[in-house]
Structures are given as structure tokens and as C-alpha cells.
Fold this protein.
Amino acid sequence: MKIVVASDSFKGCLTSSGVNAAVKEGVLSARPDAKVICLGVSDGGDGFLDSIPGLRRRTVLAHDALMREVSVPYGISSYAGGTVWIESARVIGLTQVKEEDRNPMAATSYGLGEVIREAAGSGFRSFVIGLGGTCTCDAGTGMLQALGWRFSRCDGTPIDVCCGGTLGEIGSWSAEDVPSFIRESAFVVASDVTSPLFGPDGAALMFSPQKGASGPEAHMLEEGIRHFAGRFHEAEGLSMQFPGAGAAGGISAAMVSFLGGKIRSGIDMVLDAQEFDSLTVNADMVITGEGRIDLQTFKGKVPAGILSRANGLPVVAVCGSVTEEALRESPFHRILPVSPAGEPLEKSMDPELTSKRISACIRGLLACDRI
């Protein structure tokens, strides 16, 4: 028996590799002779950098979302003259900020721009930016600022550091200080978020509450994003409202609209880099997963990406919890929730316990399931 394991992380509990290891343990305990291939995967968010094989690492000092200095790694691939791979979550990630300090009104994407600028200043011109898992909602204005754009309020006074709370104040901007090496660079946005920049499913109303915004703050961020997008339309005659623009608090919108970036599926890029299609040849099953499976899972998240590339193989999804709607509409061979319904969250998020539960679920599946 050959099984390919490629799970997303259980956010806040287990990394992708941690879930994979637990699955492998469960497989081998039920089928000791099985061949198990584990792949660390990501859709552009947490774990993106680690999921791309063969990267040379370089480290740069930058600032996190609260403008605290941090050491940030990025990767360099050997092909195409050296493509730079950056994981935004390593710079301005949600998990880098204590829960009580999370505030998308104050958070900025400035540090991401610093990392890009350092790499471009070192001679690199090709970039893949993994988006996801950030604690920002500034429509990428902080990032643009670090790259050389200058933003001013309606009265002409400069904005020192752009953040979510300053979006509604933006009156104009200038690109005069943007260096030529940024203008000459090509950008690919690796993301599977299909949300637009604004609206009920957009960066502010849908995602900012998960980043610490209160109800009133989410609406303030929505108004600010709409204001900024309106200013951009007035200045450039172009819309910032398109599928995927809402990724990473709107950074995707800025990368496409200001930097000419192209959006590509993050999970497809990762699977291509890992030669997933060839690894599934002659396989009997694929096992994937994520912390919570709901209807959003089927709209571009890692398990859905794995399913679409599985070449008709049965795909089992392991998870911490699953909604009833997702169970009813599931396209997977099986969905295996490992945490009992109604269990206290603190217990469900225990890494050691979750790992044991994953192994037990997979062992039970293979002990009775005919593949």
C-alpha cells in the first residue's frame, strides 16, 4: 500500500509536518508494510517557505505588524536567475502577536515591504509572495510605503506609517521615490483566497474580526478600504475590487494594482514544486486535512487543492472539527474529526493529545476500510 500524506497545519496546535507525522504513525500502526510519503504543504500562508524544496535561505532584519524589529528569513531558488520566495506570515503574521495585542487598526504591512526591498536591492528581480496568516488589514499601504510610495492625507500632511486605521485618511500618494529596482521586478502572489477587497466577504468584514477587530472597528476598516479603493479608481481609472484582492488584509490588491503582480494558486505552486502528481502515481490513497473543515474548505483551501490534484484517488481529510454543512456536502472519501463535539477549546488545542487522536483515527480507518 502507498499513501501520500499532505495536510495543512492545525493552526495554533500542530504544524503541517506535525499533522503529517501523526498521520504516518497511524498508518504504520495499522499497515506496517505501507509506503508513506509525507509532504509539508501550504496555500501561501503559514508554512509556505518550508513547503518549497531546495531554497537557499537568507535572513534580513525587518519590522513585524506592530513595528517591532524581527529577523525574517526568505528563500532563493536557483532557477530563473534566482527567484525570491517570501512568506508574509513570517514577517507580519498573526501568530507573532499575542492575542491581547492584536489590532488590525494599528497593524501595518510595512515589514513585508522592507523584506522585498532588501532582496530587490541585492539584485533579485523575481518574487513569489505567499499571502495568508497576517494580522494586518491595511490594503498593503504599509508595504507600498516601505517600497518607496509616499502617502499623504487630504490636507497634504504625510502619513508616517500606514496601517488599517489610516486608510480613511489617504488623500493622495506619490511614486517618485520608488527605486528603479522595484519597478523592474516581477511579482507573483501565491494565495488561494478568492475574497474581494471589500464587501461582506472582503478583507475587513469577513477577516478582520479574526485578527482582533471589534464589530465597529471592522466597519471602520471597511469604510477605509472603500475610501482607498475609490481614490485609486479616481487616480488610475482601475478597480481594486477583484477575486482574491482581499487576501492578507488587502495586500493582494496592492500587489496587483501597484506592482503589476499576478495571482496564482498557492497550493498548486507548492504541489508543483514538490512534484505531487508524480508522487501519487500508483498510490492507493491521499490523506490531507486542516484544523477546522467547513464550507470555506471547499473554496480553495489546502484540502480542496489536494483533492483537485489527486487524480481520482480516494482522499481522506482529517481535522479537529467539522461543521454539519461540510459533512453533508463533502467531496472527500472520508472526513475524520478528532476532537469530540463540545469539548473545551483548550483541550482540543493540546498538541500532544491532538497528535495521538489523529494517529488513532487513521489507525481505525485503515483497520476497517477497504482501499
User: Anything to note?
Assistant: The chain is about 35% helix and 20% strand. The chain has a mean pLDDT of 95.
